[in-house]
Amino acid sequence: MPCPGTVHARAAFDELSGERQWLASRSRDLLRLQVDVAAIPAPTGGEQLRAAWVAQRLAESGLRPTIDGAGNVVARVNGERAQAPVVVCAHLDTVFPMDTELAFVEDGNRVTGPGICDNGRGLAVMLLLARAVRGRVAAFARPIEFVATTGEEGLGDLRGAKHYFADCPRPFAVVAIDGAGDERIVNTGLGSRRFRVTLRGPGGHSWASFGAANPVHAAGRAAAALADLRMAGGARLALSVNRIGGGMSINSIPEMAWIEVDARSTDVFMLGRVEGQVRSVVSSAARAENERRLTGSAALTFTLDRIGDRPGGETPGDAPLVVAAMEATRLIGRSPELATASTDANAAMCLGVPAIAIGGGGRGGDTHSSREWFDNTSASAGVERALTIVAAMARMD
């Protein structure tokens, strides 16, 4: 007997043929919407301008958006229904600082510029889906809630998604729309731990105080040792020192240095052991620097702070949401690919809520750089897939 996910995906695909045709006819309008939202600065922690713009677009679609305590924009279709909602989310923030020049170059179907995919595409698709389902409320057994989240990138640590899922009634299913693409289905959430190590010493003149414990030397030793760190266990662990800094001038022994460490794994137990391993490596590096310092000079010290904790999780491949997403992918003529990544869906998965992340159609690349690009060729297929997945879950009573 077919899985309910398959049955409802096929039914939704057929029932919404008119909406799918409407979405396909709006491909260029959607691209314009994508450029417009990407042109609004939204660094992590500074998403207010973009949030207000998204709220206005949702209001123009006949919804009643609100902004919650984390700055998320929230709007519901079928708001009077009591069933657990299907949540569609897309993150507002980008990796680019507020003063980044948000200029976009259009060449036929291709647009280049910061954030055009991540997450200009996701937000634009979410807004168009809200318009598409607004007129089909009677067809759905469940409400659909649209959420534009804050703090997904960098040190945002999924702030908006964590707040929303902790504060709202348990959703029935969650579909995060992030970037481009129409084949991948992220059903495994990649967890991470992030640390900042700060090393402090007495400092001094590079000649007169030579021999004093040097925090930069210790930071370098720690970074090299962390690069070589291998932890036993069945799951893969990716651990990187991705930022390092310190010092005041070329002719001064620094009083302070720091490194930032990113560790990722699908195994929560592996991630739980990482902090102890990082502390052990840094302690050894600090001890080595202290052992060579001038007799009688002050010892170097360090602190280790956790600055990020992204939970992991998984929505099994046979869950109705994943099955529906795979069937919807086939229905648009693509081959589904299950994948692992870190997205807003993590915040739902870790609570046991069925959740996936998908692209919003089209193709893209050079993400998180000024060369970021999006190709709109045949991009409407991905939007039709997203609509089919959301509608399939909203049909389930």
Explain this structure:
The chain has about 400 residues and is of the alpha+beta class. The protein has helices at about 5-15, 15-25, 25-40, 50-60, 120-135, 160-165, 215-225, 270-290, 320-330, 345-350, 380-395; strands spanning about 65, 75, 85-90, 105, 110, 145-150, 175, 185-190, 190-200, 205, 235-245, 250-255, 255-265, 300-310, 315, 335-340, 355-360, 365, 375. It folds into 2 domains: about 5-190 and about 310-395, Zn peptidases (Aminopeptidase); about 190-310, Alpha-Beta Plaits, CATH 3.30.70. It contains 11 helices and 19 strands. The protein is elongated, with a radius of gyration of 24 Å. It starts with a helix and ends with a helix.
For the structure shown, list the relevant keywords.
elongated, Aminopeptidase, single chain, 35% helix, 397 residues, alpha+beta, 2 domains, 11 helices, 24% strand
SSE order and pairing:
Layout (H helix, E strand, L loop, with lengths): L3 H12 L1 H9 L1 H12 L9 H13 L5 E2 L5 E5 L8 E6 L13 E3 L2 E3 L7 H15 L9 E6 L9 H9 L5 E5 L6 E6 L1 E10 L3 E2 L9 H13 L9 E10 L5 E2 L2 E10 L2 H24 L9 E10 L2 E2 L5 H12 L5 E5 L3 H5 L5 E4 L4 E3 L7 E3 L4 H16 L2
Parallel strand pairs: 3-6, 3-7, 7-17, 8-16
Antiparallel strand pairs: 1-2, 2-6, 4-5, 5-19, 8-15, 8-17, 9-13, 9-14, 10-12, 11-13, 18-19
